[in-house]
Amino acid sequence: MGKTRWLGPALGAMLVLAMGPAAAQEEFGKAVMTGGATGTYIQIGRDLAGVMAECGQTLDVVESAGSLENFMAVRTRGNTQFGIVQNDVLEYLKTYSADDPAVARAIQGVRIAFPLYDEEVHLVARSDIDSVADLAGKRVAIGVENSGTFLTASLVLDLTGTQPAERRKIAPADALPALKSGEIDALFYVAGAPTALFAEGDIDGEQFHLVPITDKTLQTVYDAVTIPANTYPFQPEEVSGIAVKALLMTFEYNPQGNSYQRQSCKAVSDLSHLILTRLPQLQEGGHPKWKNVDLQDIPAGWDIGGCVNAGLQPDYQLECTRPAASAAPEESEANRAYRQYICSTLGC
């Protein structure tokens, strides 16, 4: 397998330029890179922005193509301290850093903020396709370039030595109608089950099914999971598969460095403190996937950021100023007269 062939020319260029997060900023800001407008990542990002807002802080939630773009944005884009990334993005880059100088430069300074939740690898295909190996010679949708689905699907195919006739770089939402019409034979989608695309996708269980992923090579890289029976209307039996973990990623900012580094480190510490202390709140009122978050499940080979650990200290002082409630505008004389008339006629 070519070390960076499947990453695409756009990402390859970013890797070459990935020397560190931008430091010169006209105005300091904070942001988290997420995913598409209807995905889980963006909802998790909005939950994080919500707890920051409760302390009078602004965290911009930025849509993206997914994990690969998020990884590189945290590495290279100013005012972007966080990104939600699949664990196999990190595993791939870490694995090949030794003999790829561009990748080695790209991962310098990358740190984990928090482990989040597992995302199941869905492979939906024609009913005569029973395994990943059966995708050989078939037309397979692998997600848009730089998305997490694209990365995982590429790894799954390459690690198993499976050679489809075509790898279609289209989003899962576009791939499903293509599968139904016979334009493709199978599609990958990495998302926390149940995903609305399949739950509401009106999929004919006689023609299509959720393919088990039981390859032993893949199970040494990914966690083995079971998608319970009837998770989707077309899926009457449980299906064995694999999952990747979503991670909140950050950068190892230097609190003794320039103004941007100091402010970014504080932003990381503040959000880390809020996640730790308000996890029950997030689990109660945030996206359902918060209930599956295990903050101790750190992926092997990666370190937690120093600014993260600073925010977890029992004596950490978080400047939490709740935004002042907006005062109600003073009512005009005309509106008061109107209300009095309504009350006198209809009652209040």
From TrEMBL:
Matches recorded under Pfam families: NMT1_3
Database matches in InterPro entries: TRAP_TAXI (IPR011852)
Entry keyword set: Signal
Keyword match Signal: yes
Lineage: superkingdom: Bacteria
Signal sequence annotation: 1-24
PANTHER family attached to this UniProt entry: SLL1037 PROTEIN
Protein's recorded name: TRAP transporter solute receptor, TAXI family
